[in-house]
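pasting for ref
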Amino acid sequence: MGMSFSLGEIQARIRELLANGLTGNSQDFHAWIRMDTLRKFREEPSFAPDWVSQVLDELVVSGEAAKSKLDPREYTLSAESPLRKKTSKNEEYLLLGRTEFQPMQYVRSRMESFLRGNGINEDMIVDLTIGSIEAVENAVKYGDGGNVEVAYTIEKSGIFKIRLVNNLRELNIEEDIERGKFSSTATLMRGMMVMQKLFDKMDLEILEDKRQALFMAEKILPK
């Protein structure tokens, strides 16, 4: 039996997600509520399935949220929302590295909000998010499904830095290829090549003693 949530608790969790810059459809928000609850309490949340879309629509009516201009099925923080936080120069959070929790969309939307809040131009936002999502995808693909540490910052020197840490599962490349996870061994390098083009510096270190992967990258931002 999972943790039973009231409608008020769902409202509070969705407000928190929106305040952190998350953009997604109702299924995304549902997945993120599940992820956050499982990560913190190791229990599945229990609540009415239609509550998420109901709360999101109510927040649009109240002006706290808005429909995305790019996709009307998605919800985002409205420009004048009282939930909007003061812009910071760094963010750090934990995810569960499983595709069912939409971790790539979580990082993409939260990072885009962070970069826009810091006045980064749209072309650079696209490059940084593509490179970062490749790193998150690798963390999910090769991780054990547990915590993924995500941290990024804009330094006073005008450099964007990102750091990811994830636990590694037992890796069997040939078995993964047979299961269709990879079309060929060449695809294993695709993400790394993309990231090398988009970042100025990049390092991927395997911490054997901890069975973890540590990814770090930097990009000099235009002035």
